[in-house]
């Protein structure tokens, strides 16, 4: 990819997430205290696409971009095999783990260990 293409993809991702955030913040009719369910899960009212875009923006942080570029320059392109395995495993996680977490109203994987310890 060329430098202009990379900037265009990154700029589009940032602009789309900014637009989604502004849309949902201005659309909210009442102002209430932000809870963890509201912040992390969009009060369980958001659809999959805005949540997925938010997760993607979180994963592609500036540190990751600098780190991946530096690692690729120093050691080669083999790090991109992570992307292949992620694409292979993502449907499994979406259909196996996420429905369970959603039904249990869990916002983090770390809460699963707390539930197990509480039942023990």
Automatic annotation (TrEMBL):
Matches recorded under Pfam families: SSF
Transmembrane segments annotated in the record for this chain: 6-24, 45-69, 75-98
Membrane topology, as annotated: Multi-pass membrane protein
Domain of life from the UniProt record: Eukaryota
One GO CC term, this protein: plasma membrane
Keyword annotations of the record: Cell membrane, Ion transport, Membrane, Sodium, Sodium transport, Transmembrane, Transmembrane helix, Transport
Location(s), subcellular: Cell membrane
Primary location: membrane
GO molecular function, one term: symporter activity
Family in the record: Belongs to the sodium:solute symporter (SSF) (TC 2.A.21) family.
Name used for this protein in its record: Sodium-dependent multivitamin transporter
Organism: Haemaphysalis longicornis
């Amino acid at each position: 990819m060329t430098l202009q293409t990379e900037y265009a993809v990154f700029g589009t991702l940032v602009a789309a997430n900014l637009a989604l955030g502004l849309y949902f913040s201005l659309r909210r009719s009442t102002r209430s205290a932000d809870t963890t369910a509201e912040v992390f899960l969009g009060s369980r009212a958001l659809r999959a696409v805005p949540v997925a875009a938010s997760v993607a923006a979180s994963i592609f942080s500036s540190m990751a971009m600098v780190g991946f570029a530096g690692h690729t320059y120093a050691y080669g392109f083999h790090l991109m095999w992570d992307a292949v395995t992620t694409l292979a495993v993502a449907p499994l996680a979406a259909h196996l783990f996420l429905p369970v977490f959603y039904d249990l109203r869990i916002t983090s994987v770390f809460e699963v260990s707390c539930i197990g310890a509480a039942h023990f």
